[in-house]
UniProtKB/TrEMBL annotation, chains A, B:
Keyword Ligase recorded: yes
InterPro entries on file: aa-tRNA-synth_II/BPL/LPL
Keywords of the record: Ligase
Single annotated GO MF: ligase activity
Alphabetized NCBIfam families for the sequence: PRK07080.1
Protein name: Amino acid--[acyl-carrier-protein] ligase
Enzymatic class: ligase
EC number: 6.2.1.n2
Length: 322, 322
């Protein structure tokens, strides 16, 4: 296992000691055990059969505990159309995280230029043109325009079940901060009261799931990583209004605990942007509970060990076959 | 359902008739039934629970009929590192299909410029910079560098099981030609004899699966869509050497049948690029069987109807619970 890139720039803390004397970081342990597979890019890893088995088991549990929601299951590929992405106003808040997809659209002459650049080890991407697709930044984004197009929602609202690979441009050495990772979400659209009750229900269910998985956890008010100085104000306001809570579990060595679930109340943000209305004509409010699938797998491996066969029986019972 | 974009430019054949008088295309039927969900972008669709149920059932069957391969299961997110992508020489053959991921890396001033462009409905993507990630063009691409790093393969070779969303920049009105779609593959690495036998085995198993699913099929020699005039020569050579076979099923209205599986012998192409060796020091040959998950689902829906509950019992038995 070539961990050169990783050991060279390991997180601060052991800089004075010889690299050989340091215990492996959690990421290094995961790579050595073959649970994650290095690709040479920070935050981009392959997953082993064992890792995927735990991910599948988690998704099955989340389905089971959500069965009373009678959610509509919708699955989208990991990209949005650019027009929908623009409407979402993601670029106002998180321009630094989004990923646009670009392609070569030139002729044979341009292709020869591309190959010459490649051969000379120069940048060949200058000929790439935007395709009109943007990688999905959060699993719920594709559903708002789809639901909006269907017309007014029933007054009781509705719940949608989504799961998608999401992209965020934040290369990191923390295994919990991947550039491509899966989010499972239940998204609720309805009256403000419906959303508040939905969020409360899932904050309780999320904590119960964490306890059933025998993970140390706390729930706290949180904010999204809004861009720039102006973003600080938006983040403060989000905290003041208690719009976002996170379920936090310690995962990374010597770092603050990691958000493994989040419980969000968007108020009428998406309802207004997409003109999603209830039967009475009022703008729908929305909220969601999001499960970070990779983060939950990493939390389980951290606290119960790298071999699921040796996990506590209660955890294994909760997850079914792992 | 707003099918405006689709009906406006429907495939040739009914141009003289009134649009209202035309029977729906297969894509329109799938959208009307809610099996696929429109996103406003050609070749980018959401999937319903029913569609995903069929996809999951197909994957389970493919796992079952491949169990004797003792394949190593590896799963990758839908992107490669740019260095690995360059090494793959994909840009020589298919530059037009690849998708690179770009992000905004500017400061607050640049962000204000971005938002001003957005507000003026001008192109804002000119500030996007390459991130060093490229979308996966075929599910097997991430595994070659990973296997190469492990050192020589056992003389008997090995089989890897992969499944990934793949991206190809080819917007189309044919539902079988999506920009983001899933490929399931078994990839074999070993001696030339091993690969030839592997491919023969899977050509037989693929046809048997097609017959069990009661789909009309034929197997034919094929070639990849190599770019440009030079690509024609490469494609001809690929056909002459019988390196690629496809299992074809009629799916699209009035169009040639669609490749739903492919059986490929790469000779030493990837083995040489990545320096993958066998125990005796010789360069590994590789081959793969690829299953187009969306295409197989679409073939089933086309031939057996849009409601799996009404499919022939033999098909339902083959797929297990759909």
């Amino acid at each position: 296992m070539d961990a050169h890139v990783l050991t060279e720039e390991r997180p601060a803390g052991g800089a004075a000691a010889s690299p050989a004397a340091l215990p492996p970081t959690y990421l290094e342990s995961l790579l050595a055990a073959g649970l994650l597979i290095e690709t040479g890019v920070r935050g981009l890893y392959g997953r082993s059969a064992v890792f995927e088995g735990i991910a599948d088991a988690l998704n099955a549990v989340i389905t089971r505990i959500g069965v009373d929601q009678q959610a509509e299951v919708l699955r989208f590929p990991p990209a949005l159309g650019q027009t929908d992405f623009e409407t979402s106003e993601y670029l106002n808040s998180f321009p630094q995280l989004a990923g646009t997809i670009h392609s070569f659209c030139g002729d044979e002459r341009a292709h020869r230029r591309l190959l010459a650049r490649l051969e000379d080890k120069q940048d060949w991407t200058d000929q790439q043109e935007p395709t009109g697709l943007v990688l999905t930044p959060a699993a719920c984004y594709p559903i708002y325009p789809v639901i909006a197009k269907r017309g007014p929602l029933p007054q009781a609202g509705k719940v949608v079940d989504v799961l998608s690979y999401c992209y965020r441009h934040e290369p990191s050495l923390e295994p919990t901060r991947m550039q491509l990772f899966r989010q499972r979400e239940y998204v609720c659209l309805g009256s403000p009261e419906r959303i508040v009750a939905f969020r409360q229900l899932w904050m309780e269910r999320g904590q119960q799931l964490g306890r059933d998985l025998q993970l140390p956890l706390e729930v706290d008010i949180a904010n999204d990583p809004f861009f720039g100085r102006g973003g600080k104000i938006v983040a403060d306001s989000q905290r003041e209004q208690k719009l976002k809570f996170e379920l936090l579990i310690p995962v990374n060595d010597g770092a603050p605990p990691t958000a493994c679930m989040s419980f969000n109340y968007h108020m009428d943000h998406f309802g207004s942007l997409w003109h999603i209305a209830l039967e009475d004509g009022s703008t729908a409010h929305t909220g969601c509970v999001g499960f970070g699938i990779e983060r939950l797998v990493l939390a389980l491996l951290k606290h119960h060990g790298l071999d699921p066969a040796n996990w506590p029986q209660g955890v294994r019972d909760t997850l079914g076959d792992v």
